[in-house]
UniProtKB/TrEMBL annotation:
It comes from Microbulbifer donghaiensis. It holds the Pfam family 3-dmu-9_3-mt. This is PhnB protein. Residues 3-129 form the PhnB-like domain.
Length: 136
C-alpha cells in the first residue's frame, strides 16, 4: 500500500512543482494540462494551460497535484512533513520553501530534533521540516 499526497493549486501548480523539484532535488515525471484532455471531456478553454495532473518524484516518494479551477480550497488540516538527515539540509530546505510564505514556528532546535520548523509556503501548502537528534 502506498500513500501519495495529492495537492490542489489555484492555477499555479506548474510553477509550484517546478519550484519543489528544484528545492527538493526531484523530477516532474507527469505534467498534463486540461488542454490535453479529449474534446468530449468538455474542459473550458480558459483553463487549458492549467495542470490537470502532475507527478513529482523525490527519491522514492511521489507527490501528485493539479490545479482546481472550479473548486479550489486552501489547504488545511494537514502538513507535509519532511524528514532530513542533517541540520544543513533542514536549513536549506526551510529557507527555500518558507521564503515568501508564512512561518508558524521558525527553524529551531527542540527537545526531539536538531532542527524543526512549521510554515506555509508561498503557494499555500503547509510544511514541517524535521531533523531528528541522533539516536531518535
Amino acid at each position: 500500500m502506498n500513500f501519495f499526497p495529492y495537492l490542489n493549486f489555484n492555477g499555479n501548480c506548474k510553477e509550484a512543482f517546478e519550484f519543489y523539484a528544484r528545492v527538493l532535488g526531484g523530477e516532474i515525471i507527469v505534467l498534463s494540462t486540461f488542454a490535453e484532455a479529449p474534446e468530449e471531456a468538455g474542459m473550458p478553454a480558459e483553463v487549458g494551460d492549467q495542470v490537470m495532473h502532475a507527478q513529482l518524484k523525490v527519491g522514492n516518494q511521489i507527490f501528485m497535484a493539479s490545479d482546481a479551477p472550479k473548486n479550489f480550497q486552501p489547504a488545511q488540516g494537514f502538513n507535509i512533513s519532511i524528514g532530513v538527515d542533517t541540520p544543513e539540509d533542514a536549513e536549506r530546505i526551510y529557507r527555500a520553501l518558507s521564503e515568501g510564505g508564512e512561518v508558524t514556528m521558525p527553524l529551531t532546535e527542540t527537545f526531539w530534533a536538531q532542527r524543526f520548523a512549521v510554515f506555509t509556503d508561498r503557494f499555500g501548502i503547509p510544511w514541517m521540516v524535521n531533523c531528528d537528534k541522533p539516536g531518535q
